[in-house]
Amino acid sequence: MKARVKEMLRQNELFRVLPESIITEIVDDSTIVSFPKNHFVIHERDRDNDLFFLITGLAKNTVITDEGNEFSVRFYHPGELAGLINTLAEESSHFSIQTVENCEFLRISKSLFNRLIHEQTLFAEQLTHDISRRLQHMYQALAAETSEHKQGFETYPYRKRVGEMMEYTITAVPPEVAVIEVTSIMLNEKVSSVLVMEHDKLLGIITERDLIKLIPAHTTIPTLRACDIMTENVITVEDDAFFYEAMLLMMKHQVKHLPVVSAGKVEGIITLRKLSDFRGQSVLSTVKTIDQADTIEKLAEHHTNITAFLDRMMKEGAAAHEICTVITELNDRVLRRIIKLAEQAMVEEGLGTPPTDYCWITMGSEGRKEQTLSTDQDNGIIYPDIDDDAHLAEVDAYFAALAEKIVAGLEQCGFPRCKGDVMATNKKWRKSLAEWKYMVEAWFNHMQGEEIRMFTIFLDFRPIYGQMALAHELRQYFMIRKKNFPFMYNLLAEDDASCGVPLGMFGRIVYDKKIKDGIDIKGGALVHFVNAMRLLAIFENIDAVSTLERLAELTDKGTFTKEEEDEVRDSFNTLLYFRIRENMRQLQSGISLSNELHVVSLPKDEQIRLKKALNTAKWLQQKLIRQFQVRGIRI
Known about the structure:
By secondary structure, the protein is of the alpha+beta class.
């Protein structure tokens, strides 16, 4: 055992800087201890803690927030050191170390560790870097968690991490094992999947579905090996991913088993059945009903399930952007199903299949994956260039008819037509690739008034269905051509500055004249976050279209500090949450959906949070004014 522990210490980034004699001393002067599952190795109230180097098993670092909620910050795997911050703290820390399964540790005394710090210079330097990284990770996680709790809801289960839900025992077979033996293993161990692995490397997965597919060719089964029938390029999920992220992966890829990995190594597996235990079944069954709907009427019926699921996510504490991400995925599925049904209807009416490739794009909030209940349609069609004018007219006529069926289907499913007519039924938003490029050039050369607004809607486009390469080429064309029009940034910043944030000089919320006791939360507040992230992302050559994805990449590029990113993210989520909640209230009360937020009816603490978010919006607006030198605007 000692030889194995020595080798594990040598592989650890912190201990590898020590000479061999010191590593031997650490092992000789320390003890190997065992703890059962769910045991607190270190509790947050403990002081003068030793360190614990994990040999076998899995442990987690947990923290109790001020509200009394426990959540996991990170997981510890064999070869990692646990309790570092607890040991170095002069007083009791906020963090606990708890076993997730039966564990063995090398217990290193605090006195020995302190001596290494004072005597080994390289060790001390590496320790400083290690502590910095750990603290940054922990407090980022804590800030994200407490920001969600500010909304006053318990965050179970949507903020629960995959590592807390996964099955830690995996069933694995080598690639050369016979399929008959694989079947026997699955029956004996009562599992619905096995992983195909070689030297700890994941090669594939075999599920019950794969075995059922073999039944028609049963005579060949005795000759088959695991590698012959396994699914390669396995969809996996990180152990520190959240519940909703695993749920999204299953939705996107129509799989029921996700191997859980950490640093590329398989640590466990999460299944559809396990997610069902944590309330994931309802959304996954909704996906199935959407994909199987054979009429628009049935899709419209199923769309009510999406609204109910949104309501449940809110009550169970999911963050606003998480809700939008899940809802957008479900709505994307509804849209794709509508498109397929529309294509089928065109064939049944004698109009035939699409005469050429095409790509259906969504724009605006749908393109940014920020849909709420009051979101209307913003969409378009891109099709390849066609030289013959007569043929071009025929092609466009086909897509005009197809677009009408799709837009009508979306309307029937609860997505209102765009009042500004930004839809594929409008020739302006249904073009060949060359015509789209021409329109981009026209915007560059004549960007005034309403055209600026149309331009900003377009900039958030996202391909949904069809030949995605057409949309990617259009995006690349824009990114290349924008370099010749630097004045664009000034105009877009000026457009945002023309609409003030509803916040007075002394921090008083200024009510909208049309609303009297409140504000337009979309046009007066959220729009400034969207505009700022869009403009700064374009300036930094970032392709992302989601506001928070743009924010994350801008932080990576140094546009924002990590603290500023956290502030912007928290404020954006606050405003988005208020909008979704107000839409739900309007829907349940039978009131027309709108973006009105009646501030006077908000509790005092929510009014304070609203002011904080509006202050952040004002700061973003001022940042654009300064950076892009918008003249004539007071900041």
